[in-house]
Amino acid sequence: MDSTEWGELVNHPNGGELWRHKATGDHYVVKSTYQIWIYSKATTLVVVKTIRLRDQYEIDEPLGMFLWEWERLN
User: Fold this and answer.
1) How far is CA 58 from CA 2, 16, 35, in A?
2) In what order do the strands lie in the sheet with 27-38?
3) Which residues, 6+ apart, have CB-to-CB distance to 46 below 8 Å?
4) pTM over cut 0.85
5) pLDDT tens across 29-73, in order?
6) Which residues does residue 27 pair with via DSSP β-bridges, in sequence order?
7) Using the 8-state DSSP alphabet, how is residue 14 labeled?
8) Segment (H or E) for 4
């Protein structure tokens, strides 16, 4: 994804940032983001890969859901 596309996202996550899940209170570190091409709709889905700090569990969350359910701590 180029910088102009990311520039359109006001609160997008960056690698190494600390985030908190609003419902559970668990803390996560953003590992990376990646895109999945959806052929049937000719579009891409941005996915955020995070690691839960209490047990190192990795979670892949679509960007829209991520921004809805999580809040940045740093």
Assistant:
1) 25, 14, 17
2) 58-62, 43-52, 27-38, 18-21, 70-72
3) 1, 33, 34, 35, 62, 63
4) no
5) 999 999 999 888 888 899 999 999 999 999 999 999 998 999 999
6) 20
7) -
8) helix 3-7
- Residue labelled with tokens 């994804």: 1
Taking alpha carbons only, the member of 74, 70, 72 closest to residue 22 is: 70
CA distances (Å), origin 54, targets 3, 39, 63: 32, 36, 22
Distance CA 18, CA 37 (A): 27
Cα angle 71-25-19, degrees, rounded to a multiple of 5: 35
Distance CA 6, CA 25 (A): 27
Compute the CA torsion angle 55, 60, 64, 68 (nearest 10 deg). Answer: -10
